[in-house]
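tool=predict chain=A
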Amino acid sequence: MDKKRIIVNGAAGRMGKTICHMVINEKEYELVGSVDVINTGQNIFKFLGIDSKKELYINDDIVEEIQHKDADLVIDFTNPEVVMENIKKVLKTKTNMVVGTTGFDQEFLKVVEDFAKKYETSIMIAPNFALGAVMMMEFSKKAAKFFNQAEIVELHHDGKMDAPSGTAVKTAEMISENRDKPEAKASRKFIENLAGARGAEFDDIHIHSVRLQGLVAHQEVIFGGEGQTLKIRHDSIDRESFMPGIKLAVNNIDKMDGLVYGLEKIMDI
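tool=predict ok
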């Protein structure tokens, strides 16, 4: 069986480095390219602290890397400011993608879906690749049938650019789709002494974002009912937590057709 030839875009970032290590260590994968706008020209193996005779240099041109390395797949963990441009460039080369960069809305996803159809490619986008986080979202969706009030607190490292997180927005969407609307808005009577104290709002679900050093990725969904609360929480304490989900996406990308949004679509849950 031929190895899957993979390029990591955003290879010099915190997630990118972890993904590169995972790809290098998987027998069925081969890291054939690394792309980033920082540390360009460095040997990725040396950059990762891996003692290897191989030489693979960080490039800042994703299209050039694809064309020269005959890649099967690009894994993109860059940032919301450049991810759409990355997706367009990669799909135009008819190369499949797994994307973990967040900050997507429905309009954004429609553009990606149209691009995937036009260039006959497959692309998996997930707001969270931690299997436990996907379960947290699914459990929250189930709980929404029985609790019509919910708030979300998401906590991430201080380098995360977008707020609220894609996971929080996706969770709010899933809750909203599966619950009876409250007879009256839960937030109808309050005074914000400081603007933003109640957080962002999605269909009467308040979302609170925390950004601090020492955090990785965490989310708690709090449901309120008569005389009771229910809390569903997931914690990623290390970026290794995302690797099983990324491998699941990589291993299934050839079976997908066009855009698939959400890891739950390929999990048997």
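The radius of gyration is 20 Å. Residues 18 and 203 are 36 Å apart (CA to CA).
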